[in-house]
Design goal:
Elements: H1 6-32, H2 36-39, H3 41-44, H4 46-54, H5 58-65, H6 69-83, H7 96-109, H8 113-120, H9 124-146, H10 152-166, E1 171-181, E2 200-207, E3 213-221, H11 226-232, H12 234-240, E4 250-251, E5 258-259, E6 262-264, E7 275-276, H13 287-313, H14 325-346, H15 363-366, H16 376-391
Parallel strand pairs: 1-6, 6-7
Antiparallel strand pairs: 1-2, 2-3, 4-5
């Protein structure tokens, strides 16, 4: 460099300045660059081309979004302020209606984020961000409305519905867990690996007689059992300490004898005074116990039905969710919130169940069960025996129960 003339040094400096400027331009271009296909979003994207056609056809609109137009607009008005974004100098923001359409389509079809990206002319990361932000807004705005903690009167109303539609008195919910398949989280070992040989998080749900979710817990490791998940969940701890506003007891139909309000679970859950499970064993030698198991399982299956309805409406549950566990939790929780929201505003549920007349209960049989002394486990056995005797009494029996034992 010392042998170069001043003119040569000046020329080198100019060339270096030009190269640096070109690099800056390339960086700026790369940061704001958008694929030509995405630039056509405003006149070729699925939201622009198809949505306006769906608005004119209620049936097609429902098939596309899994909800009525009224529910869609109600939903949009509720969360619009949470998902509204500002325009920038470089591009116009995606409208709240557009964002909600993308999220509902993702949940309803189970299509991959890449498929939604191509059809809506949006970047893959943009679609992912839209889905997660909208799910978070749905939870924030709707959770307290569609899934509040029931009051004592609400618990009694739920119990009345279970008796009217499923012939099980003093029941305040059916409980079960559902494994939601997700992609294997990095560095997670076997935490999410379940007995079905897939990676999953668990949706633990308490459901009423109309297939609505009363309370849910999402995100437990797939390797854990339903009973263990309940014990460590907020729902389980509140039930154990009686902080869920559950009434203490109520008289059984057709009798003056009182019994506690109970939740029904399967064999994976522990037997407690507030949580009943069937009698163990496939070949019970006692007809009374077989009748109880039939009545128990007949009522408990409403939670299985609720999971079926949820899966049928939101096909995202039919495939592996490509998201980290934290975001998968948001997707599952938002879907459950939407499940309740749609049932409230679309009024699609209906019932046609046999309701038995209440006759005189055999008080002599029931009065043999005492609730004095003993530990909680012994009390739980007594509670189950109480319902067993009730279902085998004139007031609790149904005409078809002997056909299924």
């Amino acid at each position: 460099m010392a042998n170069l003339s001043n003119e040569e040094l000046l020329m080198i400096a100019v060339l270096l300045d030009e190269e640096e400027e070109e690099l800056k331009i390339k960086r700026r271009t790369r940061n704001v660059w958008v694929h030509p296909a995405w630039q056509k979003r405003t006149f070729e994207g699925e939201f622009v081309t198809l949505y306006k056609e769906l608005v004119d056809d209620e049936s097609k609109f429902y098939q596309y979004f899994r909800m009525t137009m009224y529910s869609f607009n109600k939903l949009l008005n509720t969360i619009e302020s949470e998902i509204q974004r500002q325009d920038t100098r470089f591009r116009k923001c995606i409208s709240p209606r557009h964002r909600l359409a993308v999220t509902l389509r993702y949940l309803a079809t189970g299509d991959s984020l890449k498929t939604i990206s191509f059809s809506y002319r949006l970047g893959h990361s943009t679609v992912y961000t839209i889905v997660i932000d909208t799910c978070r807004a749905l939870i924030k705005k709707l959770m307290s409305e569609v899934m509040p903690v029931p009051t004592e009167n609400k618990w009694r109303e739920i119990a009345e519905d279970f008796w009217a539609h499923w012939n099980f008195p003093n029941c305040i919910g059916a409980l079960d867990g559902k494994h939601i398949v997700i992609q294997a989280p990095p560095n997670s070992g076997s935490l999410y690996f379940n007995y079905k040989k897939t990676f999953s998080i668990v949706l633990l749900a308490l459901v009423d007689a109309h297939y609505n979710f009363i309370a849910i817990d999402v995100g437990a490791y797939g390797k854990n059992s339903d009973g263990g998940i309940l014990i460590n969940s907020k729902l389980g701890k509140m039930l154990e300490t009686n902080n869920m506003n559950v009434p203490s007891s109520s008289t059984l139909p057709g009798t003056s004898y009182t019994a506690p309000f109970v939740i029904l679970g399967d064999e994976a859950f522990p037997l407690k005074s507030y949580l009943l499970r069937p009698y163990p064993g496939k070949q019970l030698d006692c007809e009374k116990k077989r009748i109880y198991n039939y009545r128990h399982c007949r009522t408990r299956r409403v939670v299985e039905n609720a999971f079926g309805i949820l899966t049928q409406k939101f096909r995202i549950f039919n495939r592996r969710i490509q998201a980290n566990p934290e975001n998968a939790d948001l997707i599952v929780l938002a879907s459950c919130v939407l499940h309740n929201f749609i049932k409230i505003y679309d009024c699609k549920s209906s019932y046609s169940r046999n309701v038995t007349e209440c006759t005189q209960l055999n008080e002599t049989t029931l009065n043999t069960i005492q609730f004095q002394g003993g530990n909680a486990s012994q009390e739980a056995f007594h509670v189950r025996e109480l319902f067993t005797d009730f279902f085998n009494s004139p007031s609790g029996t149904v005409s078809w129960q002997n056909e299924y034992i």
